[in-house]
Every structure is written in C-alpha cells, then in structure tokens.
Design brief:
By secondary structure, this protein is an alpha/beta fold. The chain has 16 helices and 16 strands. It has two domains: 215 residues, Rossmann fold (3-Layer(aba) Sandwich); 158 residues, Rossmann fold (3-Layer(aba) Sandwich), CATH 3.40.50.2000. 39% of the residues lie in helices and 17% in strands.
Length: 396
C-alpha cells in the first residue's frame, strides 16, 4: 500500500469551489486507487493583522481546520504570509507551520512520499519537510507556479533549488518541462504528466439549444479564465467586437472586471459581449458545448484544462503559442494557434466559423487526456520514487 501525503496550497474549499479544481480531481483519482491511502494538507496563507481583517480573508479564516472533502481527509492549516515581500518568506513560514502538523499526522499515518501539487511555496516547503521526515518528494509544475515564482527575484532561487533537490518532478506539458530545464532543473528528473478531462460530462450537444440557454442566437465564442491581465481577455473582446453578429461570453472573475467592462463599452459591443462572472466548473460544459469556438489569449500557460475541455465538447479553440498549445492543437480540427493580437484572433475565429470542423474530429483531439491515464501515471511516478528511496537509489 502506497501512503501519499498530498501538499497543495491550490485546493478548493467551501468559499472557493473552483479554486484548484484540477488538483482536486487529480487527488480524488489517485485516492481511489486500490493500492493508495492518501491524506491532503491544503495550507491557507493569511497575513498578520490588520491585513487579515480584509473582507477577502474572512471566508478563508472560517474554513475548518480539518474536514472530509469529497471523502478525502483534508487538513487546512493557516500559515503567515507577509504582504509586500514578493513571497520571499512564504515557504519558510509554511515549513514552520507544517513541521508539527506533519509530525502529528505521521504518528497515525506513516506517509511514504510527499506529493507537492504546486511548485511554490509548496515545493520548497515539501523539500525541507521531506528531509525532516526521511521521505521522497515529488513536485508538480502547472504553469504560473514556475513561470512567475520561478523568475521572480524574491523566489526564483527557492524554486530552482527545490527543483534540483526534488526526488522527482512532474510537468503538465512538454513545453513546461522545457521551461523547467531552461531554468536549470535536471531534465532526467522531470516526467510529463498531462491533465485529464471528464469525457462523460464534456460532450458535444445541440448548439442551438445550448445557445438559447444563454440568450444567444448566431455565432458564439466562449472564453474561460480568471479576469487577470495574463489571460488576455481584452484581446479576445476586441477580436469578437470586430466580427459582425458574433457574440462572446466570458466565464471567470477577477481584478480586471472593471477594465474589461470599459473595453466592451469602448468597442460598442455591450449587446454582444458579456462577462458571466464565476461559473461553477460543473456547469462549464453547457457553455463550451454551446459555443462555436473557444478563444483564450493567454500570455503563459502550462497546459490549460479549458483547452482540453472545449475540444471534448467538440468545440475548436483559438489560442496563443503558450505552454503546451502545440501539444493540444495538433490537427486543423482542434483549432488554431495564433499570435496574441486581436487581428490574428479575429481571423482565426472567422475561419473556424466559415468552415467549422466536424465535432467528432475535434473531440478526438481530447480523447488522450483521460483522468484514468492521469491517475495511473501519478501512481507509477510516486511508486517509483518510493521504491528507489527504499532501495537507497538516486531518483531521476
């Protein structure tokens, strides 16, 4: 029996049901493996007073310290984050908080491996804790956890050191693996581990019926992602606004909402372009299956789940050459990879609307991204690390 301690600061809770939903799905998958016992530690960063009194932190402070989350034992320890430090002290603070907690957990659950599901601050903290408790450590790279924290002056050294000291690493795409190697991490320790998609939920359906659900007639473009600059929603807004009769629905919430609302008004497209706000992940298939095209102008990605979920719904995608884009859009039926500007996006969207690919061929591009494969790959990876550790062999 493989006893796994999953460490992830990116994990949903009652106040943030969409936060880290893919980490949750991966965790539930490996937890269901017949040869796995698993517990989750999902730390919550809270600043000291008076910053912790800000409204954003109220629901986080209220989250239970321990609960059964979809049948999995989850601990939610709070650790101190210091505003204005660029994250420099996050990992050290996390180690201080987790050392006694993991000692308590280990007394009843002698975990064999620490599986860190986000590179920062989870990765550096997991390395320190793994050394303390004498167990191997795996760290997964998903995108911004390496692209941002791995290049920030305050945290880059910590990220690189964790990558060099990890017993094994996972990357969501070949492109992510190349980026990790470029930072100086050892390539022989990095295994590509693709995400999965619920192929029973994300399926093609009648588009006319789906569009009626959202009060749309005519061509529909969907976009998914937090309303933050990195997602490039402003580019997609301008692209859709330039295409007569095309509607755009954007699912997501974030700090750029007011900016994007002004951009929609400036384009004179308020009658065709709407911000839907946060949409529960369990409802996203309705939007994706209704859309003729899904467009996302990301500045950086690992391998976006939204790409794969759209394809599973038979909806082609228009995306930038970010992260694993070329690994997903590997046929004309899957969509287009274009430059991150509104003219390029408008042209690609127009092409797909004029000559839509067969939805069966589009869906075929997603069929290799299954949660079964994801779970099997994670089990093989973690079991290999523990086997090598027990035998006193180097990992990689």
């Amino acid at each position: 029996m493989l006893r796994v301690l999953t460490l992830s600061s990116l994990f949903p809770d009652a106040s943030r049901p969409n936060f880290g939903v893919f980490v949750e799905r991966q965790t539930l998958g490996i937890a269901a493996h017949p040869d796995v016992e698993l517990k989750v530690v999902a730390p919550i960063g809270i600043p000291p007073r008076p910053f912790d009194r800000l409204p954003h932190y109220a629901p986080l402070r209220a989250a239970p310290a321990r609960e059964s989350w979809r049948g999995v034992d989850v601990r939610r320890p709070r650790f101190t984050i210091l505003p204005g430090t660029g994250g420099r002290f996050h990992a050290a603070s996390l180690v201080r908080r987790l050392k006694p907690l993991l000692a308590e957990i280990r007394a009843e659950f002698p975990f064999d491996v620490i599986d860190a599901q986000f590179f920062f601050p989870d990765g550096p903290a997991a390395i320190a804790l793994g050394r303390m408790f004498g167990v191997p450590v795996s760290i997964k790279a998903r995108g911004a956890d390496v692209h941002h924290w791995g290049t920030s002056a305050a945290t880059a050294r910590q990220v690189l050191r964790a990558g060099r000291q990890a017993d094994g690493m996972l990357a969501v795409s070949q492109a992510m693996r190349r980026d990790m190697i470029a930072l100086g991490m050892p390539g022989d320790a990095i295994r590509v581990h693709h995400t999965g998609v619920d192929l029973a939920r994300f399926v093609p359906s009648d588009r006319a019926t789906g569009k009626a659900r959202f009060g749309v007639t005519g061509p529909l473009v969907a976009s998914l992602g937090a309303l933050i600059p990195r997602k490039g929603h402003d580019v997609v807004i301008r692209a859709a606004a330039s295409l007569p009769g095309v509607s755009l629905l954007i699912a997501g919430e974030g700090s750029e909402r007011a900016v994007l609302e002004r951009e929609i008004a400036r384009c004179g497209a308020s009658d065709r372009i709407r911000l839907l706000g946060a949409v529960p992940h369990g409802d996203l298939h309705h939007l994706l299956a209704a859309a003729d095209v899904m467009a996302l102008c990301s500045a950086s990605e690992g391998l976006a789940n939204a790409w794969v979920e759209s394809l599973a719904c038979g909806t082609p995608i228009v995306i930038t050459p970010a992260g694993g884009a070329a690994e997903v859009v590997d046929s004309p039926a899957a969509g287009r990879v274009v430059a991150p500007d509104s003219a390029a996006f408008a042209g690609a969207i127009a092409d797909l609307l004029a000559e839509p690919p067969d939805h069966t061929a589009t869906r075929a591009a997603a069929m290799r991204f299954t949660w079964d494969a994801n779970s099997a790959g994670l089990y093989d990876h973690l079991a290999s690390l523990t086997g090598r550790h027990a035998a006193g062999q180097p990992n990689g």
